[in-house]
Amino acid sequence: MNIIIVGTQFGDEGKGKFIDLLAKKADYIARYQGGANAGHTVVIGKNEFIFHLIPSGILHKRKKCVIGNGLVVDPETLLEEIKNLRKRGIDVKGRLFISENAHVVMPYHKLLDRVKELRRKGKKIGTTGRGIGPCYTDKVARTGIRVADLIDERAFKEKLRKNLDEKNRLLKKIYHQKGFSYKRVLAEYSSYGRKIKKYVTNTSLLINQAIDKGKSILFEGAQGTFLDIDWGTYPYVTSSHPVVGGALTGLGVGPTKIDRVIGVAKAYTTRVGGGPLPTELPKRLGERVREKGREYGATTGRPRRCGWIDLVLLRSAIQINGLDSLILTKLDVLDELKEIKICTHYKYRGKRMDYFPNSLKVLSQCKPQYEVLKGWRESISEIKTYKKLPVNAKKYVERIKKVLGIKIALISVGPQRDQTIILDKSLYGPLAHQVEHRPFKAGVTGSSPVRPTINAAIV
Ligand code: IMP
After folding, report:
1. Residue 335 half-sphere exposure toward CB, CA atoms < 13 A
2. What would the pLDDT profile of 338-372 be if each residue is shown by its tens digit?
3. Is 424 a catalytic residue?
4. 130 CA from centroid of ligand 1 (Å)
5. Which CATH class is domain 3-98+202-422?
6. Domains of the chain, residue spans
7. Which CATH architecture has domain 103-199?
8. 101: helix, coil or strand?
9. Which residues contact 434 (CB under 8 A, 6 or more apart)?
């Protein structure tokens, strides 16, 4: 079965946990867009893994992982991730494949990301500083450096020269920065190229041939529908396509090969960075939910803003992505609340609005309309079956299902693999949560959020 997993909100929906879970039934796990701005967290016992580039499926022995052409790859972060995995007993050799068409995040992309943000003053996007926007800008401008160029010494020399000439001028004249040394960047990045060469291949061919042989592919999206460059709250978006279309172009696979498209939605809404969050909670309540849900960015450590579940967002996400079902995550975070609100629609100039507006101006005048449900006020994190959930928790889930008219496939009640309620058994069989790489080597029990660094030499 070939399944695409997409985020339905503003990212951080808990996709990492489910990619790891569903990877059990897949042969290949393939990421299709974004870059090291993503932070996919998987918790196994006392071990916590945060993945920025490598698909979370890598924790399963024998599974193959693909970094697709739709990504922008920071080779420094990638090699760091490979090294950290190796330290913990996980070898990626023969299991990691990187598209030759993916673009390379260069040091000037990371610097430009930061200085451009600084210039935005009051209207900051709140980017992760990982060079994502500037790298995609070069891709679309047809001037970018692809992975295939990075591993080809001659091509790299030539492309780097052209790019650096232009970028150094921009950095110096417009942003009053020092710029980068050609020699030092060439040396550093050529060395990265030599190290990643063994993973580089035509990943579209690899995946399509695997599909022809009856293998199962799990397509892993990063970020969420409303951070999509076209469908998000532009300009407060990322520069790629987290929506379903991104999975097809970002891996070179046709829609007829896809069996299911499943959306991941948090039982409430969060957002990190700038931009509108219509159902944002008042300060105190927001902080309570943030603490309970550990709502801090896995990539930057920034606190996430929290809001009630917004069915207008989800209705649009279901439509844009053609979702067949939803995975509802972090339901346990709402355990202690006396009342829980569901935003069923917006009111705009006195009229009902069911779908998310494209215009931020219109959105700013929309008033979320809520239904208020009673909380369940008990811990659900040890509950394994839907039947055993408290009545009010079931009412909450049923209401969401009914208003949206969609099936709920899985419900997460905690970060661990076995804190999952399975409603759709075709997705994930009996709960045999074996860790195939056991034991993980002792030592680091979590990769802490990494602040963006610019390592290449600045002259
Ligand atoms: P960029 O992707 O670093 O350019 O950031 C653009 C916007 O997307 C910012 O608001 C970020 O906070 C947000 N963003 C990027 N990646 C993620 C993610 O993985 N989760 C949540 N928000 C993200």
Report:
1. 17
2. 999 999 999 999 999 999 999 999 999 999 999 99
3. no
4. 9
5. alpha beta
6. 3-98+202-422, 103-199
7. Orthogonal Bundle (1.10)
8. coil
9. none
